[in-house]
Amino acid sequence: MAQVNLDKALEAGREAVGRHAWREAFELLTAADQAGGLTAADLEGLAEAAWWNGRVELCISARERAFALRLEAGEPRRAALVALDLAKAWFSQAQRLLKDEPVGIEHGYLTRREWVQAHNSGNYERALELAQQTLEIGTRFGNRDLMALGLQDQGLTLVAQGQFGEGMALLDQATVAALSGELRPLTTGAIYCNTISTCEEIADYKRASDWTDAARRWCERQTIAGFPGMCRVHRAAVIRLTGAWQEAEQEARNAYDEVLDFRDDYAAEALYQIGEIRLNRGDLVEAGDAFRHAHDLGRAGGRRSSHGIGRRRRTRIDQRHLYDPGAESTHALRARRRRAGRRKS
């Protein structure tokens, strides 16, 4: 590709990122990257475009390169933000970079990572304190993303403690902000995914269906196919319960393709959903194949796969309750008690 075309690709790729045209941005910035010379901001844009296109390895690679460029440029705050978007192993890097910096929005995202650790370890008292700090930093600096994440995190921890009403009310507030277009796309994706998975865990299928419809409209406005990876698995589960089995299976298969190379447990969950859909359609052979494949992956989906056929009747019961927000099946009541303390990631 001639240099002039690469220059045009870079300019057009930046413009596509600004429009949230993620497929176009990914193709253009990938082409421009052939010539080298992408800035840290360009690499961050490429990383986000790669994530929305389900290209996780390329997303991570672009962020690692952006981190290095931010360090070289003497931008510790920006470098810390990039580190916080990478794996857990990068958390200490972000802590070190922000240790001597005045408090800013970067510290809000750092606090939020600390919340993840506290919440997942079951230290809910500390988790609530950290979530409140995230909200306070976001409010102080007028950062809507941090404010919404702080509300979400408080809600998730309250639900884990069994305070369903108060917790889900906070999750609703955060999700309204997310799907109204006030927040960054990545923040919107995280909040939607956590809200839907929490609705599943407490068997609140009506709320899950409502938010999935709202998310579909948001995705249409953003010209994207949907939230990548595990979010697709949660969405597939909700769509399955509405009876749109073909759409649900396609969503689950897309999820499987996206996560297979880096998260076996997520891939197993996607296969589990495909098995459930096949059961709903009366295809026991295909269902059995999906469950066996999930089991072979040896993760969460596999642990539940052997119960798939036995759960068929309960699934049908839950489908009826999807349309009756005031009703709750025995299965749903059990799910509330069993899953209230389930850890979030």
Can you give a write-up of this model?
With 345 residues, this protein is mostly helical. It has 3 domains: 1-87, Serine Threonine Protein Phosphatase 5, Tetratricopeptide repeat; 102-203 and 333-345; 204-327, no CATH class. It has helices at 3-18, 22-33, 40-52, 56-72, 76-84, 91-98, 105-120, 124-140, 144-160, 164-179, 185-201, 205-222, 230-242, 245-259, 264-280, 284-297, 300-305, 312-321, 330-339.
List the helices and strands and how they pair.
Elements: H1 3-18, H2 22-33, H3 40-52, H4 56-72, H5 76-84, H6 91-98, H7 105-120, H8 124-140, H9 144-160, H10 164-179, H11 185-201, H12 205-222, H13 230-242, H14 245-259, H15 264-280, H16 284-297, H17 300-305, H18 312-321, H19 330-339
Concise account of the structure shown:
By secondary structure, the protein is mainly α. It has 19 helices and no strands. The longest helix has 18 residues, at 205-222.
Order of helices and strands: HHHHHHHHHHHHHHHHHHH
Q: What is the number of independent domains?
A: 3
So how many helices?
Answer: 19
Largest sheet geometry: none
Task: Classify the secondary structure makeup into a structural class.
Answer: mainly alpha
* Overall pLDDT: 83
Beginning-to-end CA distance, first to last residue: 42 Å
Percentage of residues in helical conformation: over 70%
What overall geometry do the principal axes of the alpha carbons give?
Answer: globular
**Rg over C-alpha atoms, rounded to the nearest angstrom:** 21 Å
Low-pLDDT regions: 299-345
Number of strands: 0
Tell me the quaternary state.
Answer: single chain
